Amino acid sequence: MENGRKELLTRLADKEGEFFALISACTREPYVECDEETFDDKVFLYFDEEEAKQAAQTLAGKKIPVTVSRLESKQMLFFFTNLYAMGVNAIEIPDGEKPALIQLEEIIKRREKTEMPDGAVWVENPQLHLTALYFMQEMRRQEKPELTEELKGLQEEILVNYGRGRFIVAVHKENGMPMLKQKNGDAYQPIFTDILEFRKFNKEDQFKTMAIEAKNVPKMLVNEAKGVVINPYGVNLQIPIVRPEEPQEKK
Fold first, then answer.
1. Using an 8 Å Cβ cutoff, are 143 and 188 in contact?
2. What is the pLDDT of residue 30?
3. Most C-beta atoms within 10 A of its C-beta, which of 52, 148, 152, 164?
4. If we measure between CA atoms, which residue out of 36, 53, 48 comes closest to residue 101?
5. CB-count burial class (<10 Å; 0-12, 13-18, 19+) for 109
6. Residues sharing a CB contact under 8 Å with residue 145, sequence separation 6 or more, in sequence order
7. What is the pTM of this model?
8. What is the model's pLDDT at position 2?
9. What pLDDT, on a 0 to 100 scale, did the predictor assign at position 217?
10. 192 and 231 Cβ atoms separated by less than 8 Å
11. Who contacts 237 (Cβ-Cβ below 8 Å, separation ≥6)?
């Protein structure tokens, strides 16, 4: 592991250092696996492009679609920070004959809640994000998607974590709540597990943010929305929402 860690740190310190990561074609996020020995939730990083492509081909043989993304050293701070928000805690890197597993906290120290400015709200849902990644990686790789017992378990876990969550809602600076329409005409409102996912959506700086608890989501849905879509530029997970029945007097 020492050689792999040394190579990783050397490349991070080099302005022209480069890395190659496996990206899931099902989620557009780094491909995640649970390590069979340590049970760490890990992503894969390579120093050689051909080695990364070979790993992608191996996964393709298992019907797991991934692509290879080239990253420069200046992009790695965002990459590692995003892993924390995803619930990932380890990185597998080449190290001779056997890959090495490095804990994310060995590379980057995450910001603590106590370091947040006064009045700022911490919004992050790593358990929900991670479970959604595993669910979508498995569901979307199937030619004819069906809910296996494993997927049903993940789905239940997603709903539990969603119910406990606090999310970022996008509010257009002029036109109110944005809506995303599906091919069948159904409309969903986007919500985000963390600020990094919101920034993917807000590249043109058209939206403001609002933090909302899951229990209050039904109250903020516009009439035509069938539900919410979590991280539309990532896992793109749709959750139908049942609105509370209005009192008869109000009707």
1. no
2. 97
3. 52
4. 36
5. exposed
6. 139
7. 0.90
8. 77
9. 93
10. yes
11. 132, 135, 136, 158, 229, 230, 231
Residues ≥6 apart with Cβ < 8 Å to 141: 26, 63, 64, 65
Identify the residue whose tokens are 């959506």.
Answer: 201
Give the model's pLDDT for residue 1.
Answer: 57
Is there a contact between 191 and 162 (Cβ–Cβ < 8 Å)? Answer: no
* Cα torsion 179, 214, 27, 85: sign: positive
Rounded CA-CA distance 188/91 in Å is 34
Span 160-177, pLDDT tens digits: 999 999 999 999 888 888
Average pLDDT (7-36) is 94
Strands 41-46 and 18-24: antiparallel
Pairing assessment for the beta strands 187-192 and 225-230 based on DSSP bridges: parallel
Q: Which three-class secondary structure string do you get for the chain?
A: CHHHHHHHHHHHHCCCCEEEEEEECCCCCECCEECCCCCCEEEEEECCHHHHHHHHHHHHHCCCCEEEEEEEHHHHHHHHHHHHHHCCCEEEECCCCCCEEEEHHHCCCCCCHHHCCCCCCCCCCHHHHHHHHHHHHHHCCCCCCCCCHHHHHHHHHHHHHHHCCEEEEEEECCCECCCEECCCCCEEEEEECCHHHHHHHCCCCCEEEEEEEHHHHHHHCCCCEEEEEECCCCCCEEEECCCCCCCCCCC
* C-alpha neighbours within 13 Å on the C-beta side of residue 202: 21
pLDDT reading at 247 higher than 70 = no
Mean pLDDT lowest among 55-59, 113-117, 199-203:
113-117
Comparing CA positions, the residue from 133, 137, 131 lying closest to residue 164 is 131
